[in-house]
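I hope you will forgive my troubling you with a question about protein structure. I am sending you one protein, given as its amino acid sequence and as whole-number tokens for its backbone shapes. Thank you for your consideration; the sequence and its tokens are set out here:
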Amino acid sequence: MYLFWLRNNSTQKVIARLFSLPSQDHVSRICSSVRNSLKKFIEKYIGVGQMDRNEWLTHNNIYAKEFFFSSKDSGITSYVLENYLY
């Protein structure tokens, strides 16, 4: 339902009718729950909170410096910066 909402840009009232839910409030609560779960997952497993400072320092090697701080435009770096830093 959450992906349907994101992809189709439908109102929550319409989604409630399509999924046979009693009201728009149910859709709102479900979407809020999914957002909170995704946020917790990203912070724990993908974000900077997954490692402590010492672990980050051990990963500060030549490859990381070249990948993140090269003068060439790195598509993945731009993607990460645009989508996870807000």
